[in-house]
Design goal:
Layout lengths: L2 H26 L5 H4 L2 H4 L1 H15 L5 H15 L3 H27 L18 H19 L1 H16 L1
Helix pairs in contact: 1-4, 1-5, 1-7, 4-6, 4-7, 5-6, 5-7
């Protein structure tokens, strides 16, 4: 019943993070590495903040839908009597924090790699469709934390109507 909600929340973070990384790759015309993300939070504040929100959501921090996603998965495992699975999940979450927070560290706490001088124009043109998609993914990632009960009620009603 809650898996659809959790899946949409995870997909919004994945799509949003992929969009930010793809925009950076298009901007640099090279594959993206952690080094190429250095300073993105200061160069492109909107995309940097969005990627920061997505990484915190992946890690399951509060104020993102990732918190409830992890909570629902862990509580389902505990209710099934698999407490050892909850311990493994919590340990894996702690390990993943290093990966996700490392990306945030590179966004804001590392000096950007020297960008090549561009003859004309300077920065790449704005892409309003990409910015809209990233903004929508941020809204879903953060909004799913605040409106979790109406989403769960809707999913429950939908599932009940299918089996009635």
């Amino acid at each position: 019943m809650t898996s659809g909600w959790a899946e949409r929340t995870v997909r919004s973070k994945q799509v949003g993070a992929f969009a930010v990384v793809a925009s950076r790759e298009r901007e640099l015309a090279a594959p993206v590495t952690l080094e190429s993300l250095a300073g993105l939070g200061w160069e492109r504040p909107f995309y940097g903040a969005a990627l920061w929100v997505f990484m915190l959501g992946f890690a399951g921090f509060p104020l993102t839908g990732g918190l409830f996603g992890k909570l629902f998965v862990f509580s389902a495992a505990y209710d099934a009597g698999d407490w050892w699975l909850v311990l493994v999940g919590v340990a894996a979450t702690m390990v993943s924090l290093a990966y996700y927070l490392n990306v945030v560290r590179w966004l804001y706490m590392r000096a950007p790699v020297a960008a090549p001088v561009v003859a004309v124009g300077g920065s790449p043109p704005r892409d309003p469709l990409l910015a809209t998609a990233v903004a929508a993914a941020v809204v879903v990632t953060v909004g799913s934390f605040f409106v979790v009960q109406p989403i769960l009620d809707f999913a429950s009603d939908a599932a009940t109507s299918l089996f009635a």
